[in-house]
Fold 1-acyl-sn-glycerol-3-phosphate acyltransferase.
Amino acid sequence: MTSEQSAEPETPPAETQQPRHAGFAYSLGRGLITPLARTIYRPRIEGRENVPLDGPVIFASNHLSFIDSIAIPVAAPRPVHFLAKSSYFEGPGFSGWLSKTFFESIGAIPVRRGAGQAALDALDVQRKLLEEGLAVALYPEGTRSTDGRLYKGRTGVAFLALQTGAPVVPVGLIGTDKVMPVGAKMPTLKERITVRFGTPLDLSPHGPATSGRARRQATDEIMAAIHALSGQELADAYNEAPAQGTIEKIKQALPHERR
């Protein structure tokens, strides 16, 4: 989930790949990586029965570690897609091919990250996936929490749910930050993680996607459900990088809807 920060003038538009159903790489990866990861890390998986096995679904999760985007597909009882930085798919040589193949195998779809139009284009890709009846995973906080607290949710997830009518399955991840802390190059084998799937949320009673109030209230419901599953301390703030320069500081201080 991309952060809704003000776009720099030189920020390029998002370059996205057309949504597709799980291909050979994903089928092979799911067949190999899932049982291997479960054997090595022995994740505790709770609430799998809460996940609809067909139709569009949005997994909305807390975000503690790089491996969150591996933990959710490994634990979920159905294929899951998520957006990943396009640079993971564009490297040269064998290492570039290996990176591209790995991310395709875990259901990643490349997108050029950014704010403004780039963020809207990313939401559009996810909308198309949902319209195909697929499942997508997003992080309402926008980026990883470096201090373990749960930050306020941005409204993009709620917008997507209200626009498409897809149910939102809240997810609480516990321990992924210990298995692979921010900055670590490789995960440790000494820790176990817990993945908790909550009861699907129907957000339609909040109102239409065009209503800012509906998006905010729906987002708060999502975050409350995630908090109940993860048990994290609440930060009561948005998780965003410190603003650089006076203009950016003013922009962050002004009230605006974070998507």
User: Anything to note?
Assistant: The two ends are 9 Å apart (CA to CA).
